Amino acid sequence: MQLNIAVLGGDGIGPEVVAQSIKCLRSVEETFGHSFTFRKELVGAAAIKATGDPLPERTLQTCKDSDAILFGAIGSPEFDSDPKAKVWPEQGLLRLRKELGLFANIRPVKVFPTLVKQSPLAKKIVQHTDLVIYRELSGGIYYGHKSINEDNNSATDTCTYTESEISRITHLAFKAAKARRKKLTLVDKANVLETSRLWRRTVYTIAESYPEVTLDSLFIDNAAVQMILNPSQFDVILTDIMFGDILSDQGSVIAGSIGLLPSASVGADYAMFEPIHGSYPDAKDKNIANPVASILSTAMLLQHFKMQEESDAVVAAVLKSFSKKIVTPDIMGSSKYGTNYVGDFIADNIME
Amino acid sequence: MQLNIAVLGGDGIGPEVVAQSIKCLRSVEETFGHSFTFRKELVGAAAIKATGDPLPERTLQTCKDSDAILFGAIGSPEFDSDPKAKVWPEQGLLRLRKELGLFANIRPVKVFPTLVKQSPLAKKIVQHTDLVIYRELSGGIYYGHKSINEDNNSATDTCTYTESEISRITHLAFKAAKARRKKLTLVDKANVLETSRLWRRTVYTIAESYPEVTLDSLFIDNAAVQMILNPSQFDVILTDIMFGDILSDQGSVIAGSIGLLPSASVGADYAMFEPIHGSYPDAKDKNIANPVASILSTAMLLQHFKMQEESDAVVAAVLKSFSKKIVTPDIMGSSKYGTNYVGDFIADNIME
Ligand SMILES: CC(C)[C@H](C(=O)O)[C@@H](O)C(=O)O
Ligand SMILES: CC(C)[C@H](C(=O)O)[C@@H](O)C(=O)O
C-alpha cells in the first residue's frame, strides 16, 4: 500500500515521539512491502515562532494532500502564562481538527497485563479495564461563539450541538459497541445542560436501531468517580468534546502512564493519529519521553487503512518492549532506557 | 447561641442522612447550651410530587427566614431517564442556590488516617491529602442562557462569567489559602475557553494583593490526572462551577468513600450545608447510607457561626466512630452498622 503521511510533531516532546513512530512505520514498510512517504510540517508554538500562525496555510495544505496525519503534541508554557495573548499554539490543533472535519476522537484505554502494577489504582480495580471513549471533536463549547464584553468585563463561551453532530458520532460509537462487548455509556450533565438533554434524546432514539447494544447514561461527575472506582464496567463511552477531554485524560492514569495511550481522530475525509498526552515541555529533548502513545497511534493508523496484520505487529513489538522492560522512566523509575532506545527496540521488533 | 435551621432532606437518602445530622446538632445544643430550631421543608422530586414545583415558594421562604440551611440530596431516576421532562428535581437546588446568592461552594477533601486503606489509591499517594476546593456556584454554564432551536434541532448552553463574579470567590479562596499552606491552584481550560482566560487574567491580578500565597494554574484535563496521581500537591483549588463539580466528586473517591465529604455553600447573606454525594436512590430507606458527609456538613455549619469548639466536638465524634469501626458498609464491607446506629453513636459521643 502507498500512503502519504503528514507529520506534525508540534511542541515539546511531540517531535521526539513522532520520530519514533516514523521509525516504526519505516519498519512496517520494509517488513510488509508498503510505501510510505512522510512530509514534516510545523504546527503550534513552533509554527507561531516561524510564521506567526499556529497552523500555517502550508501545513494545512499538506494535511489535505495526505492520506493520514501523524500528530505529536501541542502547547508551550510561555503562552499558558499569558492570558492576554491573541494567538496561542492550541488554536492550531483546534483549527486543524475543524478544517479536516475530524468529528470523532477515539481514545482506547486498555491496561496491559505486564504494566498493571504501574497503575496508581489497585490491581483488582484496573486489571480488566478495556474501554474506548468516543469523544465528539468538532462542536460544543470548544467551537461555539466566544466573546469578550469590555463594558462589564465579562467573557462568554457558547456550547451548541445540533442533532446531526450528535448523530454521526453516536452511530460510530454504537457500531464500535456492537463489535465489542455491546455496552454503550453516554456521559453528560443532563440534569443541568440543555445540550446534554439533546444528546440524551438523540442517543436514546438512535439506540432503537441497535437493539443488541445496551445503553446507559451517567452524569459526568459520577462518571469521573466510576472511572476511578470501577473502570472495567465500561465498554464504549460516548460523550461531548469537553467531558471527553477530562474523562480520557483521567482514563490515561488508569493505564499506568499518560505516555501509553493513543488516539485516532476521524471524519468523512481525513484521519489523524496522536497520543493523548500533552507536550510536556519539561521533558523536551531529555530523551525521557515515552514514545509508546505515539507508536500505538501508528497501530491505529494502520488499522484504519485495514492493515490489521501490520497493526498487530506494532502492538506485539510494544508488548515485547514491556515484557523485556525496555521502557522509559515514567513506567519504571529505575529504567535507563531513553525515548530513542525504546523507539529503536520497538521498530526492530516489528516482524511478520 | 440561637439558630433557626431550615432542613431540606430532598430525595433518596437525603432525608435519612440529615436526620442523623439533626441528632448531632441536638446533642451539640444540649452539651454546649445552645438553642437550635429545625424547620423541615420539601425540595426536589419530593416537592414536585407534592406541589409540581421542585422549589416551592414556602421552602424558599423558610430558607430565607432561617440562619442556615441543612440540605440532603437531590435527584430521582424517573426524571433522569426522561430528557423531555419540563420540570426536574435538580432545578430546585439550582434555583435555591441562585435565590440565596450562594456563590462559593467550599469542598474540603481530607484523608482520615484511619480510613487511608479505604481509598482505591495507594496509601503513599493519598495519605497526606488535605485540600479544599473553592467552586464558583452561581454563574457559568449552569446559569447562562439556554435554548432549543426546533428548526435545526439544536440546543445551546451559554457560559458567561463577569470579572466581579470571579473576583468575589477568588478573594475567599486566597484568604483560605493564606490561612492554610499558602498555595492556590486555578483550574481552567484557558487554552480553549474565553471565560477561562478571563478567570486567568482576573485571578493573576488579584494574586498581587496576596503576595504570601503562591498561585499556579492547571488545565482541567491535567488537573483530573493530578488529582489521582498526586492529590497532596494541592492546598486550595479554585475553579468554575462545571469543573468544580467534576473535580470535587473525583476528590471524594480519594477520601475512600463519597459518603464522607461535606460542603458549605456561602454567599453574602445565607449559608447552606450539604454532603457532596448525590441522592443514591438505590440505597434509600435501606439504612445503609453513610451519614458522615452530612454530619461533617454540620461541623462546617458550626464553624461558620464561629462555634469552633462545637465543630471540633462533632469532628472528634466522627473520628471516634472511625477508630471504633462504627461505620456503614461503604467504608467496611463487613460492617453490620446502619445509618441510624452510626448517627446515634456519633451524636452520643459529642461532648465538651
Ligand atoms: C490541547 C488541547 C486543546 C486538546 C483538547 O482539549 O482537545 C488536548 O487536551 C486534547 O485532549 O487533545
Ligand atoms: C445535583 C447537581 C445539579 C449538583 C451540581 O452539579 O451542582 C451536584 O452534582 C452538586 O455537585 O452539588
TrEMBL record, chains A, B:
Short name of any one Pfam family annotated for the protein: Iso_dh
Keywords: Amino-acid biosynthesis, Branched-chain amino acid biosynthesis, Leucine biosynthesis, Magnesium, Metal-binding, NAD, Oxidoreductase
Similarity annotation: Belongs to the isocitrate and isopropylmalate dehydrogenases family.
GO molecular function: 3-isopropylmalate dehydrogenase activity
Cited InterPro entries: IsoPropMal-DH-like_dom, Isopropylmalate_DH
Positions of the Isopropylmalate dehydrogenase-like domain: 4-346
Protein's UniProt name: 3-isopropylmalate dehydrogenase
UniProt keyword annotation of NAD present: yes
Domain of life: Bacteria
Gene3D superfamilies assigned to the protein according to its UniProt record, in alphabetical order: Isopropylmalate Dehydrogenase
EC number(s) stated in the UniProt entry for this protein: 1.1.1.85
Organism: Maribacter chungangensis
